Amino acid sequence: MAINTTSVYEQQKFILQCLHARPHSTNELRELGIYFPPARIKELRDKGFHIDTFYRKESDSTGLPHRIGVYVLHEN
């Protein structure tokens, strides 16, 4: 499952579908076609969605570790 549009609305809807299934990291959302997940998450929060961010270390494709946000959607 991936998205192939730059429409803000469609990306927000896609992220909500992903987060309803389980938490996703910034890297996971990027791999699914969301170029800058933190912006879409902020927009969703501004719309009233309760999304928490936790951090964990993940390695990129070169093996370099990064502190990555993991987003968790809480049902209202």
Summarize the structure.
Residues 11-75 form the Winged helix-turn-helix domain. With 76 residues, this protein is α+β, with helices and mostly antiparallel strands. Helix content is 39%, strand content 29%.
Report what the structure shows.
There is one protein chain. The protein is of the alpha+beta class and 76 residues long. It has three helices and three strands. The chain has a three-stranded antiparallel sheet with strand order 1-3-2. It starts with 7 loop residues before the first helix and ends with a strand. The model has no long low-confidence stretch (mean pLDDT 95). InterPro entries: HTH_proteobacteria. Pfam families: HTH_39 (PF14090). Residues 11-75 form the Winged helix-turn-helix domain.
**Secondary-structure element sequence?**
HEHHEE
What do the pLDDT scores average to? Answer: 95
Number of strands: 3
User: Number of DSSP helices?
Assistant: 3
Helix content class = 25-40%
- Could you give the order of strands across the largest sheet? 1-3-2
Task: Give me the secondary-structure category.
Answer: alpha+beta
Largest sheet: 3 strands, antiparallel
Q: Any idea what the radius of gyration is?
A: 12 Å
Shape: globular
Report how far the terminal alpha carbons are from each other.
26 Å
Percentage of residues in strands: 25-35%
Query: What are the low-pLDDT stretches, counting only 5+ consecutive residues below 50?
Result: none
Number of domains: 1
